Amino acid sequence: MFMSVAKVVRNSYHHGNLKSALISSAIKLIRKNGPYNLSLREVSSELGVSPSAAYHYFPDKESLVHGIGEYLFTELAVLTEKSLEKFPGKSARATKLRFREIGRAYFNWARKEPNLFRLMFGGFCSIDREKSHIDDASFKILEKTLDELVACGVMPSNLRPFGEIMAWSSVHGAVNLIIEGHLPESSFEELLDGLELALGVKHERS
Amino acid sequence: MFMSVAKVVRNSYHHGNLKSALISSAIKLIRKNGPYNLSLREVSSELGVSPSAAYHYFPDKESLVHGIGEYLFTELAVLTEKSLEKFPGKSARATKLRFREIGRAYFNWARKEPNLFRLMFGGFCSIDREKSHIDDASFKILEKTLDELVACGVMPSNLRPFGEIMAWSSVHGAVNLIIEGHLPESSFEELLDGLELALGVKHERS
DNA sequence: TGATGATTTGAACACTGTCAAGTTTAGTGA
DNA sequence: TCACTAAACTTGACAGTGTTCAAATCATCA
């Protein structure tokens, strides 16, 4: 149970923007040590602030983690959207590449930040039922791209109703299994092939 | 930070089978409180044993959790196999039902024991690479059933190579997303429909 | 019986989350 | 300029945590 000392001395009594500083410092530590193993005291000491300072912004540790989760969900969506800009246009080819890119962005994010991925989907941030996450930004991106696949004639419309559930579940599942070591990394592209086959996405020879 | 007191007085100095007692007691607590939040001291006190007794069998808390993970993986496989006995025979109908049952067993297990599911797939038990989990008991059951689907002519053999990755990923992903509240429970049967469609499993009207 | 080796304990250490009460500060209105 | 106030942060404490290690206990076999 060793911990590195990283006390930071600040000049003013008031920190300025402690709330967001807490979040980003906590993210940094979670990246290194995992979502379990986050220490509020370590976060505080990183910021040169007393251990109880955080309690002015978060009722407890759990809600800080929850806040981080929400932050990460929007960040992932932004990141996905950005990576779709690489393939603009309404052509069948571009649309197919965008579809694949959604999955790859998801995968790359998780591979680069496995501990943040675990935080998002490991039961640390409980979602309020009823709403589910159907209205997530990420989910909307997926919906839109699936619609476009149908629109440009690449995906048959009778398979469209299964689009969201099949794509999200299989990609998410594969990513999870891969980063936990249950499947090799090479499985991911294989899954994308299978998914496109499943959704009837037509292939041209490359 | 409240904890229930459940001290157990035992008669003999030696416990007898402390190792397995530690595991099953820890499982009980994890079911209630989640994999993070497991307290070694609470486990010990439940068994009426000193906090340091566990260290004779496990080098640290992490390896106890790891041991539990391995135990759960085999238990899930046994449970799956058992539930397949409900649909014996080589008929197309029975084989299809078995295939669906694998997914349902997975889902039911996770819904009944979300915290154990989180322990298994939330990064608490790291798998030694290279091996992956390809040689898991659960995986073998899936492989066998997919082969049988082809054998009885229900699934086209050109889709067979995608069987494992598609089935395991999508089922696992859906289960994970559902128990974390990102998808409604009703999504699961929808996913199974989509999966069978994807793998070309023929439907007769029911 | 005595000795040996496997189990378990006790006490200590350095951590942790959390909270009530106190202290500092920035910002207001007079 | 000054007092006042509400917000931001600290102090000090409490209970609970994982972990270590010497000492105590027990079961077993020579």
Class by alpha and beta content of chain A = mainly alpha
Mean pLDDT reading of chain A: 90
Q: Hey, roughly how much beta strand do the residues of chain A contain?
A: under 5%
- What form of chain A results from the Cα inertia axes? elongated
Order of helices and strands of chain A: HHHHHHHH
Low-confidence stretches of chain A: 1-5
Largest sheet of chain A, in brief, is: none
Biggest interface found: A-B, 46 and 46 residues
Number of helices of chain A: 8
Q: What is the total tally of β strands of chain A?
A: 0
Amino-to-carboxy terminus distance of chain A: 54 Å
Oligomeric status? homodimer
Helix share of residues of chain A? 55-70%
| CA gyration radius of chain A, whole angstroms | 20 Å
Quick overview of this protein structure:
Chain A is 58% helix and 0% strand. Chain A is mostly helical and 206 residues long.
Describe the structure.
Two copies of one chain form a homodimer. Chain A has 206 residues and is an all-alpha fold. In chain A, helix 4 crosses helix 5 and helix 4 runs antiparallel to helix 6. The first copy, chain A, contains eight helices and no strands. At the A-B interface, helix 5, helix 7 and helix 8 of A face helix 5, helix 7 and helix 8 of B. Chain A binds a DNA duplex (30 and 30 nucleotides) through helix 2.
